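Input/output pair, single chain:
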Amino acid sequence: MIAYFPDEQMVYTTVRKSEVCTFGILSIQLSVAITHDVLWRERMTIRELTSTDMSVYQALMLCGLQEHPESFRISAQDAGEPMVPFASNHSDSFTLGAWLDGGQLAGVVSFARETQEKLRHKGLLYRMYVRGEASGRGIGRKLVQEVVKRARAIEGLEHINLTVVSLNLQAKSLYTSEGFTSFAREERGLKIGESYFDEEQMTLHLFK
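Output:
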């Protein structure tokens, strides 16, 4: 478990933001009240999620799937399938969560090492998501950095791959700033309804 304290205070002028995510019988309302011109300085803890975190993880991911469907290869219709990467028998796979002081899960990211013998030098960073009202606090960067730190401690692991939608410039900028480089692009990699999205593959060599 790792705790972070923001180096800078942040000023919020938004009074209130409310979001509702509804999927069949599951209805989730996320609401945050922010006092006008109040300085924010909140502690953040990153830890590996376990099966006891399943419900809060799934709720967060379902909201992400509704708000940004192009950012995930799974869809809301896949929600009936296993959505919890930490329910894995492989010790080299994990899901990290960023928790705020109030016990709020603000962001998640998953990592999985390839299991086939010829591919075990590679791992995959995937299902990265930071809730909208928590963006701009460096949560995504801390999650990526923690994945890289843990990956470097895995014996025999040499690099991390990820896939990002080409139009997601903010995510691409984050990954690039953390050392990832693009090596391939797939046109029309995703299809959502009648819309297509190009995907970009990026990699980070852990011991370059």
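The chain is about 20% helix and 40% strand. Residues 93 and 112 are 4 Å apart (CA to CA).
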